[in-house]
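In the current project phase, the collection of sequences with tokenised folds has grown. A representative record is quoted in full directly below:
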Amino acid sequence: MSQYVQYLVIIGALAQLIGIASYIKETLQGKTKPNKVTWLLWSVAPLIAAIAAFTDGVRWAILPTFMAGFGPLLVFICSFISKNAYWKLEKFDYLCGIFSILALILWAITKQPIIAIIFSIASDGLAAVPTLIKAWKYPDTENAAPYITGIFSALTSFAAITMWNFSSLAFPIYLVLLNTCIIISIYNKKLFKNI
């Protein structure tokens, strides 16, 4: 693999870190109100998927997936620092969190890399539901920067893939789709105002 591809993946990871920094800044200012259930589980599932893909032979292409877990971990930690960043969790948030954790437990039982990736995607997707709903109903409580840079970072994975298989493709494709859905949710009032 060309070293330029590695640089592209690193640039994507740095871009994602910049997007997360923007989200963290607004969280600390109380402008953005992260859903703690979502951000905690968004940190766990991609980190598990990154480890699983790494054990299945994926190398540089896994960096965006790793960053998709590391960034949310930073947001989750910072969400406790600012009292103004509070978002009230409801039963539905906890229910999604429970199902997300259940998906992770099922992966732990199987201990197969492909199963781990499938359950990590399921877990991450279930964890995203509360934030998707919140972004749709209250878009002013979200910041699109980490989702936009998340798409760019995930797309860099495709340049670094050396083995075109489920382990290397699944999570990056999922990340592009999820981030796109959240961006649409954030901008729904502008996008669909004439519909």
